[in-house]
Amino acid sequence: MATSEQEFHSAYDELESRTKRISNIGNATMVLYWDQQTKMPDGGTPARAKQLSSLQSIQHELLTEDRTGELLTELESQELNDEQAAVVREVRRQYERAVNVPNELVTEITETSSEAQPAWQEAKAEDEFETFESYLDRLRELQIERAEHIDPDKDPYEVMFEDGEPYLPLNTVERIFDELRDGLVPLIEEIQENGADIAADAFSGTFDTNTQEAVARDALDVLGYDWNRGRLDTAPHPFMSGTQFDARVTTRYNEDDPIDSLTATIHEFGHATYQLGLRDDAYGTPLGESRSSGIHESQSRFWENHVGRTKAFWELFLPTFKERFPQADDVTVDEAYEAVNQVFTDNTIRVEADELTYHMHIILRSEIEQEFVAGELNVGEIPARWNELMDEYLGIVPETDSEGCLQDIHWSSRFGGFQNYTVGSVFAAQLWATIEAEIDDPMDLIRDGNFDPIREWLTENIHEHGCRYTTDELIEEATGEPLTAEYFLDYVREKYSDIYDLD
Q: What is the pLDDT of residue 346?
């Protein structure tokens, strides 16, 4: 072997080894975060904040050490195969975004975020925005400072957005938002004014939460969740945490609404399926990590909406639901389908929203956080601004801040991520259209409970690539064209015109 080739392998192997150490620290951090949200006693916050900040600090130090930069420089002139080039590209991006951020700032952001989460929970429970206000204002200051270290010439909010979606320009997302406003608002208004009556109360009544957990487990069994690499727990705000070896899902239960916990569970299953579909042999490297927040959300929205809200799924699952809840014995498949797809014109809660009004919730949040980060909105003005936009976009005003600006956990840790829920929904519809073209009768597969072909297609076209492709490249690889809102708008127009008997 020539000396230059030996040097190349030495440099690449060292970079890969360093990357795996950094990744493992991040994965350990995720487990601590999962524990904080699900199992940790209330008094554990001070210690947990220190634990998380220490791990984040070590991870930051490893990433930004001079040796990382030296290895990246050495590899610039080397001939790399496609996978090696992808690893180097992703590590270089992480390094360049982190190297100018002081370690003490990373520590302070982590500690403040860890302390902010229980403050948010208390504020929401007590309906007292003031309890969370000072944390939110401080996090804004810290995140702006971080963004200015990363790129002082770029708008701080755009830098924050790129944390979760590095290769999809913010202006592309804003263009899609404009298309959705133009397409969704008239459809929602038409449903409100001319929509037929549907079986909105098919699942009315009281549903024991312990039995709801059994239903959630039934759904995970039906969908094919790998219990050897996962578990189900409860959390104030449902989430998934993990790797390809351990992808844990959480949900929450409302005794007045069994569909809320069921759809949340299926949503988080979609996230877990993505993690579990990543390559085992690439664990700890970018090739074994998910591409972006938007792509991740496409998987959860795919399973929640294009599987869990279909008539075919309810033909499959309604008998199981009735076994658990005999009080629903008279509910028909058509009634169940209508109930899980009803448009909630009076709903203030994002995670309980339907496929149409959901995106107005996202647009509202994105506008408020952009105004807040830009300094156009003071922290104390957020509740009033929230209610103003809720009235403008959805025609309703929350009765409390708990149902308004305190309902989401996200601002206790970051800004610039809400757009990815809509990106995910739009891409999920594009994926479904591609699957319909490439797999025979996918609805029949759902009706029969045969989810393997669908999951295998998603694994082959999305999951197993990890971060080999950039976001835009991955979308085109999977569907043959760039991200577009066309498929989502066609899908919802057809679906909801049928449900509400629109002309």
A: 85
